[in-house]
Inverse folding.
């Protein structure tokens, strides 16, 4: 009976020790995953006329969700604000094996038509807010840029796993690097590159 009791106590002790070791391992693994400087590298090549492939290489953790936007800047008539014609958008693209790939086609006629359709829709509505008129003025085609902007954005407001939050922080507080933008209550990482593409 005593042998059984001793064996039982030993088993409980081993299980308890294993749990403590597992807990220590998890803490050490979390510490080992700390990144001193977050980096994103973007390489873009033209694979056919006006069609491009972008390859993102990064040290952000596996399955980190990025928001990707490809756009062309322009201004509107009687309006000095800078706007972006959207060419490609992905709200949630996941890192796999330190990489992300996506293709996009530059179709300026498409985003210009979409905006012109918005103007027509706005003009068909009752005019009860003249302040909105500036937002729906025609594009000044002379101001359309000959560059395409690619933005790779990490934000804590996108859906991120608990493991990623433990590394980067629930509000991005552990983010470091030259592409980090700091706000009063959170941080984001926004890598922006520009490629030349003549507007025609």
């Amino acid at each position: 009976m005593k042998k059984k009791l001793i064996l039982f106590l030993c088993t409980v002790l081993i299980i308890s020790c294993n749990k403590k070791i597992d807990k220590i391992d998890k803490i050490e693994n979390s510490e080992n995953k700390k990144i001193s400087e977050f980096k994103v590298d973007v390489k873009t090549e033209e694979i056919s006329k006006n069609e491009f492939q972008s390859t993102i290489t990064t040290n952000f953790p596996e399955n980190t969700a990025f928001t990707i936007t490809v756009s062309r800047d322009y201004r509107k008539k009687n309006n000095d604000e800078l706007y972006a014609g959207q060419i490609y958008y992905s709200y949630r693209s996941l890192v796999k094996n330190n990489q992300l790939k996506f293709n996009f086609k530059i179709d300026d006629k498409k985003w210009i038509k979409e905006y012109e359709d918005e103007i027509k829709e706005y003009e068909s509505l009752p005019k009860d807010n003249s302040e909105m008129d500036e937002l729906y003025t025609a594009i000044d085609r002379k101001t359309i840029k000959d560059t395409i902007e690619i933005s790779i954005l990490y934000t804590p407001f996108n859906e991120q796993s608990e493991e990623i939050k433990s590394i980067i922080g629930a509000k991005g507080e552990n983010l470091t690097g030259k592409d980090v933008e700091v706000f009063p209550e959170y941080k984001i990482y926004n890598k922006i590159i520009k490629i030349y593409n003549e507007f025609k």
